[in-house]
Specification:
Blueprint (H helix, E strand, L loop, with lengths): L1 E6 L2 H11 L6 E6 L2 H4 L3 E2 L9 H11 L3 E4 L2 H5 L2 H7 L4 E2 L7 H4 L1 H11 L6 E4 L2 H11 L3 E5 L8 E4 L2 H13 L4 E4 L6 E8 L4 E3 L4 E2 L2 E3 L3 E4 L4 E4 L8 H19 L6 E10 L2 E8 L6 H8 L4 H10 L14 E8 L13 E2 L8 E5 L2 E3 L5 E3 L3 E9 L2 H14 L1 E2 L10 H5 L8
Parallel strand pairs: 1-2, 1-4, 2-3, 4-5
Antiparallel strand pairs: 6-9, 7-8, 7-9, 10-11, 10-16, 12-15, 13-14, 15-18, 16-17, 18-23, 19-24, 20-23, 21-22
Helix pairs in contact: 1-11, 7-10, 8-9
Length: 426
């Protein structure tokens, strides 16, 4: 099998790495990829970007790709998967209509209501007056979400009514709507569910860290780190989420005539009343993918091809290694507000199966030197017998990276390693 991965982040680097570990995958290509991906796979430019549908279809045809894996959400919502399917090319990723589960939070809420999925009470607002009324109804902490795609940074959770309204107004100013929700308390869990539109196969759960600073301080980001497994998670959590959330959602999407085939990312809060859905995504999450795929023993290419071909029910149960995995994101100066780019990066050579760097916002300058090219620059992945060992391996890599002005969180997986994550009680 020859696989083509669309995207350029650490998530795509992790997917490429996973595909290369599948004995049935003979070659992996990436478009556009990044310098880290280029060290292990053939990268191809996409001058029109990851939404250049015609160029992606033509590239897959030229390469003879047996499977195309679409990493980011933007090309999915833009319909790249539809065009590939229409061209007779197997693709892992939902259609544009199905990807609206991520593309529109209001649509996702509508589907959840129809499928009786447990989630937060919410209001869709199109004016400041509607937002004010909704915020007064929910009370603090206030949760305001941009209805559309916002690269993980469209959500504001605050005790300040003024700040909540300011975020809503900024969304309205761009011509959008917002979803105001009641706040869900409790630790958060990310669960990826692979589906072919009928069968649902869950991966191992992970937890990510969205705030930029230690102790969950500061603004939301695309994610500053993650870990798996979750030793504190209640028994039966995954089976419960599949039965009450993922399978009913997949069934409802199929009933509507827009089957969802790809990965349904279920973002959960474990509240005193049980798991509640915070959000759906239509693709692998970044940085959770980095730790989940680090633990997967089953061949990744075989799994994704079965989902693309509607044959998930023919696969044996997935197998996982017992080791823990932790990833820590190294971010550029100014991230997330105004990331600085073009700074030289060193200290990224070496690595092993237990500790390795995945590239995200990196590029080569005119002289061929590695430089920063985005907000989240690198993901340091550590694998070990337990979370403490995996943390140590990841942070040792981070300590070796030289990037002027860079920053990272120092508490990724710390509470879980110390056994201090508390589940809420009624």
């Amino acid at each position: 099998m020859r696989a083509l991965v669309i995207g350029s982040g650490a998530r795509e680097h992790a997917i490429v790495r996973g595909l290369l570990g599948d004995p049935d995958v003979t070659q992996v290509d990436a478009a556009p990829g990044n310098p880290g991906v280029a060290a292990v796979a053939q990268c191809h430019p996409l001058t029109g970007g990851v939404t250049d549908t015609d160029a992606i279809v033509e590239l897959a045809r030229t390469l003879g790709s047996d499977l195309v894996v679409i990493g980011p959400e933007v090309p999915l919502v833009a319909g790249v998967a539809d065009a590939l399917r229409a061209a007779g090319i197997a693709v892992f990723g939902p259609s544009a209509q199905a990807a609206q589960l991520e593309g529109s939070k209001a649509f996702a809420k509508e589907v959840m209501a129809a499928a009786d999925v447990p989630t937060a009470r919410s209001y869709v607002c199109a004016t400041p007056e509607e937002a004010t009324a909704a915020l007064e109804a929910t009370g603090a902490p206030y949760v305001v979400k941009d209805d559309g795609l916002a690269a993980g940074k469209g959500v504001v959770v605050t005790d300040s009514l003024d700040d909540a309204l300011d975020h809503a107004r900024s969304c309205f100013a761009g011509g959008g709507t917002v979803v105001v929700e009641e706040f869900l308390s409790g630790p958060e869990v990310s669960l990826f569910c692979i589906t072919d539109g009928t069968t649902v196969v869950p991966l191992e759960p992970a937890q990510d860290f969205k705030r930029v600073g230690d102790g969950d301080e500061g603004p939301n980001t695309g994610g500053m780190g993650a870990y798996s497994p979750l030793p504190w998670a209640p028994d039966g959590l995954v089976d419960d989420v599949v039965a009450r959330v993922a399978q009913p959602t997949v069934d409802e999407m199929r009933r509507r005539g827009t089957p969802f085939a790809g990965v349904l990312y279920v973002g959960l809060a474990l509240t005193p009343a049980g798991p509640r859905v915070i959000e759906f995504n239509a693709r692998f999450g970044d940085p959770e993918t980095q730790v989940v795929l680090a633990r997967l023993r089953s061949p990744l290419g075989t799994l994704l091809r079965a989902a693309a071909d509607g044959k998930l029910d023919e696969l044996p149960p997935l197998t996982w290694q017992d080791d823990a995995a932790v990833t820590v994101v190294v971010a550029s100066a100014g991230y997330p507000a105004s990331p600085r780019t073009g700074d030289p990066i060193s200290g990224v050579d070496g690595g092993s199966d237990e500790a390795y760097l995945l590239h995200a916002g990196t590029a080569r300058d005119d002289a061929g030197a590695l430089v920063s090219a985005g907000g989240r620059v690198l993901s340091a992945v550590g694998v070990g017998a337990d979370l403490a060992t995996a943390r140590a391996a990841a942070y040792k890599l981070v300590d070796g990276v030289q990037l002027a002005g860079s920053h990272h969180r120092t508490d990724i997986a710390l509470a879980a390693a110390e056994g201090t994550v508390a589940l809420p009680t009624v």
